Amino acid sequence: MAIETEIRTALEKLSPTHLEVINESAKHRGHAGDDGSGESHWRIVIAAPALADKTRIARHRTIHAALGADLIGRIHALAIDIQ
Question: What are the chain's domains?
Answer without folding.
Answer: 3-82 (3.30.300.90)
